[in-house]
Structure formats: C-alpha cells, structure tokens
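#onboarding

Welcome to the new folks! Below is a worked example of what a typical request in this channel looks like: someone posts a single protein sequence, and someone else replies with the predicted structure as tokens. Don't worry about understanding the tokens yet, we'll cover that in week two.

Example request:
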Amino acid sequence: MLHSLADLNREHRRFWKKQTAADQARWNNVSVRRVALGLLKDEELRGVDVSQRMTLSLALQHGAQARHFFRPPRARTSVRLRKEPSAHHADTRAFHREVSRRGGKSKGCDFLQLTIDRLVAARPRIRQGELLIALRSEPGIQEIGKGCVYFVFTDRRDRKIEDKSPIRALKDRLRRARDKLANSAKSESD
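Example response:
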C-alpha cells in the first residue's frame, strides 16, 4: 500500500525503469522494430487521431507477440486472387527469416547418409536402383522393405540406435551426396 507521494514516485520510477529496459530490448530486435513501426505507420495512413494512436511502447509489445500477429490471413472466399504482397506479408516474411536464423543448425548426417556418401564417393554416377542394391550388402543395414530402409548404428555414446528412412528419400539423399562430392572437388581445385 502506498502511504505517501514519495512511495508513489518510487513505484513510478521502478515501473518505468523496467518498461524502458523492455522497450529497448524490443527495439533492438530488427523484426519486432519493423512490425512496431509498420503498425504506427498503418495508424497514420488510416488517419487515426493523434490522441488515439498507439504508443511506441505498445506497438513494440504487439510486435513482440509474434504468434498472434504473424498468422497468415485467411481467405474469405474459396478463390484467392493474386495480389501484390502487402506490407504485412513483407513484415511476416522478415519476421520468419529472423526467427529461423535463431533456430540453430539441423542435426548432422545419420549413418545411412554417411554410408551413401561413401558409396557415391566410390561410384559418383551410381543410380538410385544401383544404390539400393549396394545398400543391401552394407553392414549396418538391417532390412530394405515395406517402403523403408532399416539400419542400426552406434552413436558417440556407444548406444545402439535403430532407425529407418523411407525408400523415396533415397533420391534426395543421393542428390545430397553428389552435391557434397561436387562441392568438395570444387573446393580442392580452388
């Protein structure tokens, strides 16, 4: 309970110190800042009275609540007309790019990809059917059937891991192995 004006002033300073730090952190985030400025610009273009416009602090809070603001707009009809992308869509794409960069790296190659890399290094022009036949004789490949390649490997902690990959993914894995081989040959020649 506040007893005096001094208590009220102390609470006021404490609140604004926290608020200013939060606003500064939001402002430093490029995608949140873009959204906030876009919201303010939108209100200006719509002709909202200055006394009724949202504050920068509130716009930054809305920008930080990305989940709510970055859902793609739903079509009201079953037919979508092709339009030029709006500023909202540009901000959405910028935000998603920013968030994606923070996502980290995907896990490295699994046992099957390493095996395919080795087979492609030995025979660069190998086709998908030939690769499937070659995989049958590889150690660690348990079974090829039911639309999947089943394999077993030991991870870094010496745990036995059983995994599977769809046969239809071999095409992509083969392309990845060829690209990796081509890039390594290119870097060696430079």
